[in-house]
Amino acid sequence: MDEKIAQIIKGAGLRYTPGRAALLGILMDALAPLTQEEISLRLTGVGLNRVSIYRAMESFLKAGLVHRVENGDRVWKFAYCGCGSRKHCHPHFVCRSCGKVECLVDLSLPEISNMKPGYCIEERELYLRGLCDECSSK
Question: Which CATH architecture does the domain made up of 2-133 adopt?
Fold first, then answer.
């Protein structure tokens, strides 16, 4: 797993560090998005402080390795993005029961061609919320 994580980090154009590897491993193993506090509690023996975790998460976000999701509780949660897409021009499904986040890469967001002059779209996000297959079968 460590070699796979190293390849993912380097493949995203980021410098490999043991701290980044530990953070990404935690997110890859998580069943649901995690808050920064939850990530901190799972980090043992790595020696990363809050600021270092924040900076690493920001670099993961910019590289497209993670999604940042707000489930309505005004706390950012982070989830690993295993879809390989760096642009994230696709919707995401968020399960309202378990918090699972899934890339819906087979769906694409429509292009917006008639934007007001002077406006520049920097980010497009679409979250579809409902129950995942596991939660809906309970």
Answer: Orthogonal Bundle (1.10)
Closest CA to 53 of 83, 81, 17, 29: 17
The angle subtended at Cα 45 by Cα 39 and Cα 51, nearest 5°, is: 50
Ordered strands of the 127-130 beta sheet:
101-103, 92-95, 127-130
Cβ atoms of residues 43 and 53 within 8 Å: yes
Q: Are strands 76-80 and 101-103 parallel, antiparallel or unpaired?
A: unpaired
Q: How far apart are CA 77 and CA 135, in angstroms?
A: 20
Nearest in space to 24 (alpha carbons), one of 86, 108, 7 = 7
98-126: pLDDT as tens digits? 877 777 778 877 777 777 888 887 777 78
Task: Output the pTM of the full model.
Answer: 0.72
Give the pLDDT confidence of 18-48 residue by residue, as tens digits.
999 999 999 999 877 888 999 999 998 778 8
Tokens representing residue 95 in the block: 């399960």
